[in-house]
Amino acid sequence: MKRRKNTSSSGRKSLQFRGTECLNCSHPLDRSDVYCPNCSQLNSKKQLSAIDFFAEFLSSILVYDSRLRNTLKDLLFHPGVITRNYVKGERLKYANPFRFFLSVSIIYFLLEGFVGFIKAAENDNQLGLNLKPANEAPIDSLFANQLPEIFWSSSRGDSVKAKQLGLPLYFSEKALDTLPFLENYSKRGSLYMAYYYRTKTESPSAALDSLDHTNTFNNRWLYSRAITWHKIMHNPNAFVNYITSKIPFFLFFFTPFYALFFWLFYSRKKYNYIEHVIFIFHIFSFMFLTMVIFRIPELIFGVDFFQTILFMLLGPLYYYLALRKFYGQGKWQTLFKFVFLSIIFTMSFVTAIGLFVAASAAIY
Questions:
Q1: Is 250 in the same domain as 348?
Q2: Domain-located, residue 8
Q3: Does the chain have fewer CB atoms within 10 Å around its N or its C terminus?
Q4: How far apart are CA 98 and CA 300, in angstroms?
């Protein structure tokens, strides 16, 4: 740790206030140590004054601003350079790539949510509408394709039970168990959704008891999913907002998977797996940061083509330049890997987002 002469007789760095042990981590110190070489805390026993506290506050702000300024400058205007410098060891110069990605992506979705809320309120005010949910479609129309199945069984009890419950369809547990797996689940789910639509019974156990179905874990889970699908059908915007709020975390966990392809494609390079992960986080951070920036003129001018330009032109160009700068390969070799990695990203991203949406619906 750097040692330097003290120039102040009364400041916290003054020699008279220095000790031989760090007050933060108890590391042994020499009185010539201005800072602890172990934890970097100032070596001073001086009682903290208002001036000292304010000076430390300004110092921490300036250090943070310096990191943020360097991160924004190199991320926006020097594709691939920020990752190259970071993995070479220039870490204090930049914000942590994982934390920065989460921060800027969450800021973007918060901004989008706020803009969407404002636009919805303006539209409602212009149209003079009351914020009431739309009338639900009649239950018979929702299950019209299932109506003939009321009499699919030879059991008269099924149609009688349907009339007792006020449902357009009913399938007994015994009859459902004779069906193939997929048909069993389809008809069981339709019945549970119809029952919830009619009664709004939230308790799976109470619903199964009324339907004369066995109270098993599988049936309780399926009834809960029927409630979920009903809510999604009649309030899709809420589900979209639920999904959107989790996209930063989805990308956070998707990145390590995508980095495997970089690790394979650039196996002859000196970079290890985690350094490929850092590169991808910087690419995603650039995209979210520029989406925030491009959103501003869209709001000012009332147009929506700025982000289209970003995704169709600027984003791919930045990605290509970042690959070439960070991995240091020729333009044609980089172009080939750029195209192939883009195809892999599209295919794996679509598959992963499908699984993500399905999993989100399962726990919504």
A1: yes
A2: no
A3: N
A4: 31
Full residue range of the structural domain in which residue 96 is found:
75-126+241-363
Same domain, 170 and 246: no
Question: Same structural domain for residues 190 and 266?
Answer: no
Are the beta carbons of 208 and 219 closer than 8 angstroms? yes
SS3 of 60, please?
Answer: helix
Answer with the one of 186, 214, 234 that is the final residue of a domain: 234
Backbone angles phi, psi at 152, to 5 degrees: -65, -30
Cβ–Cβ contacts within 10 Å for residue 117, how many?
Answer: 11
Residue 276 located in a structural domain:
yes
Q: Which DSSP string corresponds to 174-206?
A: HHHTTS-HHHHHHHHHHHHHHHHHHH----HHH
Q: What are residue 35's DSSP bridge partners?
A: 42
User: Residue 325 above 60 pLDDT?
Assistant: yes
Q: At 6, is the pLDDT very low, low, confident or very high (cuts 50, 70, 90)?
A: very low
**Confidence band (pLDDT; 50, 70, 90) for 154?**
very low
Q: φ and ψ at 44, to 5 degrees?
A: -155, 135
Answer yes or no: do 121 and 252 share one domain.
yes
Give the separation between CA 212 and CA 227, rounded to whole angstroms: 18
Q: Residue range 12-27: average pLDDT?
A: 85
The answer to whether 70 and 38 have CB atoms below 8 angstroms apart is: no
Residues 121 and 251 in one domain: yes
Residues 108 and 203 in one domain: no
Q: In this structure, what are the phi and psi dihedrals at residue 62, rounded to the nearest 5 degrees? A: -65, -40
How many domains are there within the chain?
Answer: 2
Task: Encode 268-295 in three state secondary structure.
Answer: CCCCCHHHHHHHHHHHHHHHHHHHHHHH
3-state secondary structure (DSSP) of residue 22: coil
- CA 83, chain centre distance (Å): 22
Rounded Cα gap, residues 101 and 284, in angstroms: 7
- Residue 95's closest CA among 58, 64, 62, 59? 64
* Sign of the dihedral through C-alpha 188, 189, 190, 192: positive
Domain boundary among 234, 267, 302: 234
